[in-house]
């Protein structure tokens, strides 16, 4: 059992009354985490994938919900987004059955968040479970072992099944990407042209680390700008990709309203383009390194309740900084280099425009400091 960092967050909230909403893509270990944590007989498990459970909990009255819960002290509803109007049912449980603590999981923030945000205002804690993190694996094995496996992690990612089935990485990650990237997303929004979604994912996979233009993506995929943006928003809600906006405050030639798009898991990204070449033979190693570092940093901040505004920075003159955190009014600027020997000079335009800053070059020698520093 690989200890998940989010466990400490859940432990701090397990004895209050608020409902815990645990979001994250399929197969990242939400069910495994909770089954290892809640082993006592006073826990009731319900699975939203089962039709009779959906029937029981859809538009149920408080009397019916009390009958279902009985004397149990913990109620876990897995894949809660599959249950129509689950937000209203959870609100009734919270209001009418105060002795039970509820934990609901969902593999789509688009579906579950939409259902629970309004009914559960002030009644919930919401957390995101990511694929395994580099820090979690260091705790499970050692820093030396994970450093040796760094190239493998960049190629195959951090899904638990991938990590625990050495030698079968490609087949497992391909199956994962085919099952949840396409089938779930297509079903959620009744997308009529799945080939367009596949083309968009491939275009995004080839453009990690680069500015993304909806107009260019539309040209590549045969979609209009609005459809491209809608699909990207859907992919974000399904925990496939996320957007990083540009920082633009002081200089006239800074790029405004620009964005980069990264993948939550590099194994999924590499499966989409079916590229498993070693890093030494790839043209995208630097972009993969950038994606890896940003995602691992986001995991660390999420599990340690560190809240920052995140950006990249670029001017029309192509001056650039890979990643910036705005934390308590101070900018922390980072440049990412896979090659330890490459020298880096931070833009004088940036340091002059934003003098209250902290600068750091992140490479293979010091990356662990970056992804694990508070």
From TrEMBL:
GO terms for molecular function: ATP binding. The keyword Nucleotide-binding applies. Residues 183-339 form the DUF4143 domain. Signal peptide: none annotated. The keyword Cell membrane does not apply. It comes from the Bacteria. Residues 17-137 form the AAA domain. InterPro entries: AAA_14 (IPR041682), DUF4143 (IPR025420), P-loop_NTPase (IPR027417). This is ATP-binding protein. Keywords: ATP-binding, Nucleotide-binding. PANTHER family: AAA+ ATPASE DOMAIN-CONTAINING PROTEIN, CONSERVED PROTEIN. SUPFAM superfamilies: P-loop containing nucleoside triphosphate hydrolases.
């Amino acid at each position: 059992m690989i200890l998940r960092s989010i466990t400490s967050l859940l432990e701090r909230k397990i004895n209050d009354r608020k409902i815990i909403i645990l979001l994250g893509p399929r197969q990242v270990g939400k069910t495994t985490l909770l089954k290892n944590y809640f082993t006592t007989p006073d826990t009731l498990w319900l699975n939203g994938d089962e039709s009779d459970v959906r029937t029981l909990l859809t538009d149920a009255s408080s009397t019916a919900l009390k009958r279902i819960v009985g004397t149990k002290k913990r109620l876990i509803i897995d894949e809660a987004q599959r249950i129509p109007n689950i937000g209203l049912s959870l609100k009734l449980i919270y209001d009418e059955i105060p002795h039970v603590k509820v934990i609901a999981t969902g593999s789509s923030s688009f579906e579950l968040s939409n259902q629970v945000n309004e009914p559960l205002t002030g009644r919930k804690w919401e957390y995101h479970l990511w694929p395994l993190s580099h820090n979690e694996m260091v705790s499970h094995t050692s820093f030396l072992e994970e450093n040796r496996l760094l190239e493998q992690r960049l190629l195959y990612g951090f899904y638990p099944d991938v990590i625990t089935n050495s030698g079968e990485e490609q087949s497992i990650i391909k199956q994962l990407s085919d099952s949840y990237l396409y089938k779930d997303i297509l079903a959620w929004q009744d997308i009529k042209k799945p080939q367009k979604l596949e083309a968009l994912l491939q275009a995004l996979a080839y453009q990690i680390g680069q500015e993304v233009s909806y107009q260019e993506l539309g040209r590549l995929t045969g979609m209009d700008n609005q459809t491209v943006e809608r699909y990207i928003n859907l992919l974000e809600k399904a925990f496939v990709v996320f957007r990083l906006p540009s920082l633009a405050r002081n200089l006239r030639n800074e790029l405004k309203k620009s964005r980069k798009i990264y993948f939550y898991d590099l194994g999924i990204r590499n499966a989409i383009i079916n590229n498993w070449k070693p890093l030494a033979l790839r043209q995208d190693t630097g972009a993969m390194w950038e994606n890896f570092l940003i995602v691992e940093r986001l995991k660390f901040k999420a599990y340690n309740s560190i809240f920052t505004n995140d950006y990249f920075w670029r001017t029309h003159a192509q001056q650039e900084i890979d990643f910036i955190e705005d934390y308590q009014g101070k900018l922390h600027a980072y440049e990412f280099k896979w090659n330890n020997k490459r020298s880096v000079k931070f833009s004088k335009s940036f340091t002059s425009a934003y003098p209250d800053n902290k600068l750091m070059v992140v490479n293979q020698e010091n990356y662990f400091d970056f992804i694990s520093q508070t």
